[in-house]
Amino acid sequence: MMYTGSIWRRFDFVLFGTTLLLIIFGIMMIASATTNAIDPDLISRVPDQILYAVIGLVLVFVLTAVDYRLLGGVHNWLYLLILGLLVLVLALGVVGEAGAQRWINVGIRIQPSEIGKIVIIITLGQLLSTQYQNMNSFMTVIISLVHVAIPASLVFIQPNLGTTIVFGIIWFSMAWAAGLKLRHIGFMVLTLLIIAPVAFTQLEDYQKGRIITFLLPDSDPDAQFNIRQALISIGNGGLSGLGYANGTQSQLRFLRVRHTDFIFSVIAEEFGFLGGVVVMIALAIIILRILKGARTASDPLGSLICYGVAAIIFFQTTVSIGMNLNLIPVTGLTLPFISSGGTSLLSMLAGIGLAESVIVRRRRIA
Question: Is 199 within 8 Å of 192 (Cβ atoms)?
Fold first, then answer.
């Protein structure tokens, strides 16, 4: 056991510093994307992002100071808490765009599904860390899958398909790290192929429309409009960009939801290919530092927590940039640390705090 005073000497300042730079850059890009806005919601985006960033950065240090094993010890209570919040959303949640009921108002609006992504990493990590020697058993795999499927189902009916998929990615990444067998993966893939058509029929019309528009771009010109604007924005940026706050598609408001879903297009237009690459390198550094923490963790729980956090950041980065490039359907997932979204930023910084908690308590390397 390490002395409490020694943990801060092992704090990963590269991980924290890179995260901080991305947050500052994200606030700058949100400010650019909402320049001269008259919508009160857009006007408040920058101060809100700053407020959540300050809270989130404090949360990083709080979670670093708290031994992650203590959180693992109260996993049942954390699991019940997130289930309660998700049920509360369905009963009393605030309805947002497209009729989605994803938020609750506690003075500030919070999105429990975002909190749930971090909580499920802790609870699933605790479950798998006690059962990883039994990963040969199909029953162990099913139990872990049901553990994630219950909150994921509550998120799905909000509706929130993107975050539901994130829950699935968390399960797969952590189960794989715990020793998921290929035969189990094959069975899961077969099951998904069977239930996919049924799941598609349960999607909201706008969710079906996103998939159909991706497969058949000419089927809905209006839905395809913003994707085309995103591609134009990226093309306009060229190698080095048009300059900060000088992007034509974003400043002239051709590009919709430019402060959230399509913020990477704003980055590419204003800072070009080089700017986009720098952002991806910074996100890659964060992921690699967390994966290093997983490899040097002192126990299976610490490793699994790091793998779960890295999986979220990698997946959301890939999806967010991919949909801006029209490589995958639009899902609404944020670009980590950059896109506007208070609870999303808090959840990402909570993940960094958990990873730091593991890193500062890592085993000594000879």
Answer: no
CA 34, chain centre distance (Å): 22
Q: What digits encode the pLDDT tens for the residues 158-167?
A: 888 889 999 9
Q: How far apart are CA 36 and CA 46, in angstroms?
A: 12
Tell me the HSE value of 159 on the side-chain side, using a 13 A CA sphere. 13
Q: Would you say how long the chain is, in residues?
A: 366
- Domain segments of the chain: what residues? 4-359
Rounded to 5°, angle at Cα 81 from 134 and 58: 100
Nearest to residue 112, comparing CAs of 141, 145, 71, 79?
A: 79
> Which of 118, 122, 92 has the alpha carbon at shortest distance from 104?
92
Q: Please state, in angstroms and rounded to a whole number, the distance separating the CA atoms of residues 142 and 121.
A: 17
Per the rule left: phi > 0, alpha: psi between -120 and 50, beta: everything else, 165 is: alpha
Q: State the average pLDDT over residues 124-146.
A: 89
* Integer Cα distance of 264 and 323 in angstroms: 10
* Residue 108 DSSP class: S
Q: 24 to each of 50, 64, 170, 339, how far by Cα in Å?
A: 9, 21, 27, 11
List b or e across 29-64, with b for residues whose CB sees 16 or more CB atoms inside 10 angstroms: bbbbbbeeeeeeebeebbebbeebbeebbebbeebb
Helix axes 342-359, 112-131, angle to 10 degrees: 30
What pLDDT, on the 0 to 100 scale, is given for residue 154?
92
**What angle in degrees, to the nearest 10, is found between the helix axes of 300-324 and 263-295?**
160
Torsion angle, alpha carbons of 353, 358, 359, 362, to 10: 170
Q: Which residue has the higher pLDDT, 216 or 317?
A: 317
Rounded to whole angstroms, the Cα distance separating 353 from 215 reads 39
278-329 per-position pLDDT tens digit: 999 999 999 999 999 999 999 999 999 999 999 999 999 999 999 999 898 8
Record the tokens describing residue 147, joined without a space.
Answer: 């553990």
